[in-house]
Specification:
Pfam families: IDO
Number of helices: 16
CATH class: Mainly Alpha
Keywords: Heme, Iron, Metal-binding
Protein name: Indoleamine 2,3-dioxygenase
Strand content: under 5%
CATH architecture: Up-down Bundle
Number of strands: 4
CATH topology: Methane Monooxygenase Hydroxylase, Chain G, domain 1
Structural class: mainly alpha
Distance between the termini: 37 Å
Low-confidence stretches: 1-36
Binding site for heme b: 400
Strand order of the largest sheet: 1-4
Family: Belongs to the indoleamine 2,3-dioxygenase family.
């Protein structure tokens, strides 16, 4: 299925309001652009970068790139595997020794470019996960060496990201074209079948398809951002014609969300659940999912500005700003009643690129929230359209529940751990969490008179 058919005209891809840079007149809202530079949201690619990410750092950081190449080409094996040969253990040990003996490279010149910082975070976080998850399991306190620790924490501080693999490392900044797109469609979103990944732990099609499922969702979701912008413009007008247009746009949003569900379901075609659970997923586990082992970042005494990090959850689909944007825009509340704990999805926003976090904050501060507008309208067609959009998001989450059951819960039980909850990469009880999020989404449906 070609999910890029029936998209809005490109002038509707101007996403959401830019942050206030001064006073806005009372009773008005700044809807100048949802894809403003301030938010790093592109009119063609949404939260994905408009051009494929860098594939290599400049020469002065080549040692990091070479270390990553060495790990991936030598096919380091997970330390938790039962069938490790002596040579597997020795090979990973030699690689970790070489990494620990690298010089500590300065990131000063990296600070001049967001693109360089993103590539550096990608490479260093990948190196750290390879180092940790190839370390023998008998070692319960893993000391990450200064050649990784110092630049990774420094780069992470610049990007305001945790020093761990994130969704942005695995998805947003981990893609390239299979073949360059034709020059006659320079303003079109990338074709969803023309994508490949830059970095893979296992080198398998299963791993690539797992990441690309999310990448395709991000690209297909560009139209959803355009629809949000169009709805916000009409909400500002608020007349009967605007209500009719919002009704049509909400039905269109439901159709886009149905496409996202189809893309999510299609991950089954390329990624085997057992391969994912046993061979792929353990590589990108964060410290939250690795409770038997403590991660220690060595060398922090060399930079007084650095501290042992606390946020080390690893990549999660909960870090997708696109899905958060749908929740915020539709008024889906994921806060846990009766608790002061920070909701998991709120915490996952700290793992997003900082500009995308700003986008979500600004979207949430809209003076004309859609849900309130629909409730106040008492327009049956508008309420029905709103429920169609929320219902489509609920169906998306139904599919996510099935995916978690297939890829995490089932393999976990078959692996012989029936008493312990199957944890997601973010450290949550994966199945219980996605069920709760799905139920909260359903709770946003409005009663129709």
């Amino acid at each position: 299925m070609d999910f890029l058919h029936n998209t809005l005209p490109l002038d509707h891809f101007l996403a959401l309001p830019r942050p206030d840079h001064g006073e806005v007149a009372v009773g008005t809202t700044d809807t100048s652009t949802l894809a403003a530079h301030d938010f790093d949201v592109d009119t063609r690619t949404g939260f994905m970068p408009p051009q494929p990410p860098l594939t290599r750092l400049p020469e002065q950081w080549e040692l990091w790139e070479t270390a990553l190449d060495d790990a991936l080409t030598s096919r380091l094996r997970l330390a938790e595997k039962d069938d490790l040969a002596e040579e597997d253990v020795a090979k990973s040990g030699r690689w970790r020794t070489r990494v620990s003996e690298l010089p500590i490279l300065s990131i000063e010149e990296l600070k001049q470019s967001e693109l360089l910082l993103r590539r550096a975070h990608h490479v260093l976080a990948w190196l750290m996960h390879l180092y940790i998850h190839s370390t023998p399991t008998a070692i319960t306190e893993i000391h990450i060496p200064p050649p990784i620790t110092l630049p990774l924490l420094q780069v992470s501080a610049q990007l305001q990201l945790p020093p761990v693999l994130t969704y942005s490392d695995d998805v947003l900044y981990n893609w390239a074209y299979k073949s360059p797109p034709s020059s006659d469609r320079p303003l079109a979103p990338p074709a969803l079948d023309n994508l490949r990944c830059l970095t893979l732990f296992t080198g398998t099609r299963d791993e690539e398809e797992f990441y690309l499922a999310s990448a395709r969702i991000e690209f297909r979701g560009v139209e959803a951002l355009g629809l949000m912008r169009a709805i916000m413009d009409e909400a500002f007008l608020g007349d009967a014609t605007a209500v009719r247009r919002i009704t049509a746009y909400l039905h269109a949003l439901a159709r886009v969300t149905a496409d996202l569900t189809a893309i999510l379901a299609a991950v089954r075609d390329g990624c085997d659940p057992a391969t994912f659970y046993h061979d792929i997923r353990p590589w990108f586990k964060g410290a939250d999912s690795d409770p038997r082992r403590r991660w220690v970042f060595d060398g922090l005494e060399r930079d007084p500005a650095l501290k042992q990090p606390l946020e080390l959850s690893g990549p999660s689909a909960g870090q997708s700003a696109l899905i958060h944007a749908l929740d915020v825009f539709l008024g889906v509340d994921h806060s846990a009643p009766g608790t002061r704990a920070v909701p998991f999805l709120t915490r996952m926003q700290s793992y997003m690129p900082r500009h995308h976090r700003a986008f979500l904050r600004h979207l949430g501060a809209s003076p004309r929230p859609l849900r309130a507008l629909v409730q106040a309208s008492r327009d049956a067609a508008l309420v029905g359209a709103y429920n169609a959009a929320v219902g489509a998001l609920k169906v998306f989450r139904d599919e996510h529940v099935r995916i978690v059951a297939l890829y995490i819960l089932g393999p976990s039980r078959r692996a012989g751990a029936p008493g312990a909850p199957a944890k997601g990469t973010g450290g949550t009880d994966a199945f219980k969490f996605v069920q709760g999020v799905r139920n909260q989404t359903a709770g946003a449906l409005l009663r129709q008179e």
